[in-house]
Each structure stands twice: as C-alpha cells, then as structure tokens.
C-alpha cells in the first residue's frame, strides 16, 4: 500500500487509516487492490470485506477520474464524508433513485433495456438464456 500515494497522490486516505497498516503488513499493493477479488484481499489481510470493497471501489473511481474515464465529481461523490445524524432522513431513497444510480450495459434493444431498468447491470453475474 505504500505505492497508493505514489499512484494517486491526492487520494484521501483518512477514511481508510484503519485498513492501511494491515494491507502494508501483508504486502498488498495498489495493483492487488485493482486486480484481486476483495474477498481474497480481506482474507489475506484479515480485514472486514465491506471496508476492503469500499477502499477498492474508491481507488478505482479515483484512478478513473484521474485518467478522465469518468467525470471526476460524479465518480467520487459517493466517497465523500457520510451525512451527519441530522441528515438521516436523506438516507431514504426510492427504488427509482437507486435504479438510476446503477451502472448498466445497454442491450441495444429499447424494449429489453426498459424491462431491465436501463440494461444489464454491471458488477453482477447475469445469465441470459432462451430458445
């Protein structure tokens, strides 16, 4: 992990200070975060899986933003400081709002895309079968 700030100099590590020592101790690099499954990293470093996933997704979003693959502010918005207790009401979102945040791949068929909520969702295993 010592190469994280070399790869992404402006990466905000304050949210992940509890993870970094264990990742460094187990010789996990930024390349490992990007290429290995988060479950494998969590087992190797003996860290909570959700924290490792959050870190991995944040590193990926930061890298994509730096390379210009996605818009910087939109890609990193969900990794900003969490809302305070006073803003707890803003945590409730409708199903439509959640579906709008999904990353999907279009099937190039408008009716099928509409039935799927915009297309085939990414980061899931999807099996398409038929006759």
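Q: What amino acid sequence fits the structure above?
A:
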């Amino acid at each position: 992990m010592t190469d994280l700030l070399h790869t992404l100099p402006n990466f905000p590590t304050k949210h992940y200070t509890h993870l970094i020592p264990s990742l460094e101790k187990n010789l996990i690099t930024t390349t490992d975060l990007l290429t290995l499954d988060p479950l494998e990293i969590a087992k190797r470093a003996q860290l909570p899986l959700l924290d490792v996933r959050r870190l991995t997704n944040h590193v990926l979003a930061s890298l994509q933003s730096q390379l210009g693959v996605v818009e910087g502010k939109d890609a990193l918005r969900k990794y900003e400081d969490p809302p305070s207790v006073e803003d707890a009401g803003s945590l409730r979102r409708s199903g439509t709002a959640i579906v709008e945040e999904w990353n999907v791949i279009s099937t190039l068929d408008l009716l099928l895309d509409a039935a799927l909520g915009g297309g085939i969702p990414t980061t899931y295993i999807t099996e398409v079968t038929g006759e």
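Q: And what stands out in the fold?
A: Strands lie at 104-105, 120-121.
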